[in-house]
Amino acid sequence: MAKACRRWYNGILRSPSLWRSTEVQLRGNWRDNSEIDYIRYLGQYLKRLTVCGAIRCHRHTKKFQRSVTTIFANLYRQGPVQLNDLTITEFHFQSYFRGTSGAFARAGVIKSMNRFLRQQRKLRAIDLSFNTVTEEEGVSLLSSLANARCVTKLERLNIEEFFKNKERMYVSVEFVHAVTQFINLRLLVINYSCLSNELLCGLGNHANYIGKMERLDVRCSRSDSSDHAIHPSSWQSFKDSFPSVKVHFRLHSLVKLNDLQRILVSQIPLTDLVILGHNDDNFQPDRTLRFVARNYQSVLEKFVIDVSPSYRCYHQSLVTIFKDCTKLNSLELRGRVEWPTLREVFEHLDERYFKRDSCPELDYFRMTVVAQAADSYVEEALIFEEYRDKLYQRRLDYELVVEPQFFPLPVAYNHDEPFAFQMPGEPIFID
Q: Would residue 430 count as lying in a domain?
């Protein structure tokens, strides 16, 4: 009707609530014109804006820079527009902005972003992830944000992969000074290469009041500068400043026990741990589980291990983590496990919870079994089948998945479907 009736068109165009949020994808070509027109006509109504870089060729950097500059210039002229939520992500400066022309375009983009950020007074959340800027560029953007009037209102800051790889941000005094200016942060997403003793202590010392921060997400990978260690006293000071904070760690390609022991000290209030990567025969699953269970038995809530290929089995440590981690509500493991170990796990759950008519904290358990003889899969499936009714009554979802190269059909269970198991060449039997 808006196309047929001018009154409908004017009514829709002038309804601010319809244009509060938008996502802009910039490719550095002619497709950017429609995005620019949208901002030019409706940018004044925006409260949430996502600017996502979709550039895929270094030849488009100049046009990309013009598009970014035009968008922020239009928002600046229209007020400037005061946003509540801003996302500027996936510009990938390190990959596409190279050479003389790339450096010129890069400087233009950073200048436009700095100018716009300095004028923001109501910003509560900002996402600057996956831009891979240099230390100087990143610090200038964070400083512009820190010097804006929104510094006391910002609650969520995402700078995952904000800096380029191998940038040693943990030694940057300017970076620590900029981040600690945000005194009302509730969520901080950051790379381990940016984490330091000074930053953890500074966040606690500069906080508006004790207990403000709720979550700290840390991403650590082999491609980052992750060879430094943070002193346990710094984590303890951070935990004392924010008693209810939850720390989430995501480790990529760091599977050696020595690396885990260096990064994951016992003073971290770790509630969520994910370990992903390739195993070059350095991963020790049993010792890793024991290490985690020993250090985080009173705080760990979610634990995921997806490391392949698997050469060693989970033994008694699998039982230990169920016994010791009393707050664990989600466990996902990939590896080799023998059926007596699985039986001991379910016997523990039966003895501790089911016979006492109480519900365990655990509500999801997934085991991906690899590299074992086919006979053992039958035993493991029968164990799951034996305890199915009890687990169903306690609303505990569990899943046994067999790696496709050894066993093509998954063995899984949920509340809505019957349990099924099949051996090669045999019919499926369902209870």
A: yes
Domain that includes residue 398, residue range: 279-431
In a domain, 136, yes or no: no
Split into its structural domains, the chain has a count of 1
Asked, for residue 82, whether it belongs to a domain, the answer is no
- Residue 347 inside a domain? The answer is yes
List phi, psi (to 5°) of 178.
-70, -45
**Side-chain-facing half-sphere of 35: CA atoms under 13 Å:** 25
Give me the helices (H) in 296-372, please: 316-324, 339-349
Spell 80-95 as b/e; 16+ CB within 10 A means b: bbebbbbbbbbbbbbe
Per-residue pLDDT of the chain (431 residues; tens, 9 = 90+): 455 677 777 777 777 788 899 999 999 898 899 999 999 989 999 999 999 999 888 888 999 999 999 999 999 999 899 999 999 999 999 888 988 888 999 999 999 999 999 999 999 999 999 999 999 999 999 999 998 888 889 999 999 999 998 889 999 999 999 999 998 999 999 999 999 999 999 998 877 655 589 999 999 998 888 889 999 999 999 999 999 999 999 999 999 999 999 999 999 999 999 999 988 888 999 999 999 999 999 999 999 999 988 888 888 999 999 889 989 999 999 888 877 888 888 888 888 777 666 666 788 888 887 756 666 667 777 777 788 777 777 777 878 777 654 433 344 434 444 333 333 334 333 33
